[in-house]
Amino acid sequence: MAKYFGTNGIRGTLEDVGPAFALQAAQAIGAHFKCGRMLVARDHRLTGELLRNAVVAGLQSAGCEVIDLGITTSPTAEFMLGKMKADGLIIITASHNPPEYNGLKVVDGKGISVSKERGEEIEKLFGNVKLADFGSIKPVQGHGTSAREHMDAMKALLHPDRIAKRKPFIILDLGNGTTATIAPQLLKELGCKILTINSHMDGHFPGRPSEPLEQNIQELIRMVKETKADCGIAWDGDGDRIVFVDEKGNFVVGDKVCALSVLLKLKEKNGDVVTTVATSKAVEDVASKFGCKTIYTRVGAPYMSDVMANGKAVIGGEEVGGVIWPELSLAKDGIFTAAKIVEAICEKPLSAWLKEIPAYYNVKTRVECSEKRKKAVLDGVWDHATSKGGRVIRHGDDAIRIDQVDSWVIIRASGTEPCIRIFGEAKSKDKAEALVKEYEKLARSLA
Ligand code: MG
């Protein structure tokens, strides 16, 4: 079992992911990528600069050529990885976690982020890396035009004329995150009228918690209603996750953003759709309407991008509002998802688009649980579920999904936080709530 790598890289507070640790980890990562050409990017967290310095020192001392992209969104960094054909990328980010967290997200040259399993291989190199000779240390190169290059690539995939003609009014809640480096500029250039809130990057996240949950974006919801905006958009801290508020002020959950993205993509081009076992069945229903296949993976971006790299998928997405557009990268790109949906609402309102998505009720909750107790909770859930009958499947070592007619529930040990996540879905709200309550109670008693 990997000690430090979770479902999406390494995360922790400065105590666990400090400069000495980051230096050692970066040396091991550099060696894993054969000491080649490595990109480094970071978000704007308070510990970002010190970890960046340690990561760069680690890579350089392992003999890598380092290109520093500076502060960018994760999707921008992952787009640049493909564009610059580098051997690997380290993004210093803790995504949507609280301010005191930071982490290392590691992506290989194919654009696939390093999973727990592959992380275990890297961990074996910790402390065992042969340092480069004095004469072969390479200077660090800066690269300051990533946002511009990412924007140009996105614009080439859109129809800016349609947006410029309609001039939609959009409110952006940047959550004091890195989307400030790109999202307002892109939407302005596309011809939108925009209003931004929480728009300065601030590692204290003074405006709202970084995770774009409904309870965290109440200000955006209120402003969309008051100003009669065409929609509101909110991202997490590093810009891979996105949620919407429709023109009536309704929160649009990540599953629906994902299903709508699939609908928009398949209208243009048919192909396989990749999603995780924790995503709403609405995605599969949309794909079936177009006669397209849905491929399910374990929860975690690495598993989705792995399938996408080796198959014929035209789009991928997961329930938190992360959508992969393979023409740009194999990473979740919340910036392009924003632009794509903004383009669609120039044709008809967001609420009208959402009527085309099959209605399911989703209930999501979490139960606090230490790392030590996660296995015991999952074992208990397994015993309970299998004794009741129905289709019960384990997905990897961290999730159990129980399928009944027209409803399902997944119980999953979080790979990034000390908690168990429980998501349920059904055709009726009562049924979804009852299903989630049953497993929430059980998990609580076992945690
Ligand atoms: Mg994120």
Task: Please describe what this structure looks like.
The chain has helices at 19-32, 48-61, 74-83, 116-123, 146-155, 160-166, 183-189, 218-227, 254-268, 282-289, 301-310, 334-345, 350-354, 374-388, 429-446; strands at 5-6, 9-13, 37-42, 65-71, 88-92, 101-108, 141-142, 169-173, 193-197, 231-235, 242-245, 251-252, 272-276, 294-297, 313-318, 322-324, 361-368, 391-395, 399-404, 407-413, 419-426. The chain folds into three domains: 10-144, Alpha-D-Glucose-1,6-Bisphosphate, Chain A, domain 3 (3-Layer(aba) Sandwich), CATH 3.40.120.10; 149-354, Alpha-D-Glucose-1,6-Bisphosphate, Chain A, domain 3; 361-446, Alpha-D-phosphohexomutase, C-terminal domain (TATA-Binding Protein), CATH 3.30.310.50. The longest helix is centred in the last third of the chain and has 18 residues, at 429-446. The chain has 15 helices and 21 strands. The protein is an alpha/beta fold and 447 residues long. α1 (19-32) packs across α2 (48-61), α3 (74-83) packs across α5 (146-155) and α9 crosses α12 (334-345). Strands 1-2-6-5-3-4-7 form a seven-stranded mixed β-sheet, sandwiched between helices. A five-stranded mixed β-sheet has the order 9-8-10-11-12, with helices on both faces. A hairpin with a 5-residue loop joins β11 (242-245) and β12. Bound molecules: magnesium ion. Magnesium ion is lined by residues 95-96, 236, 238, 240-241.
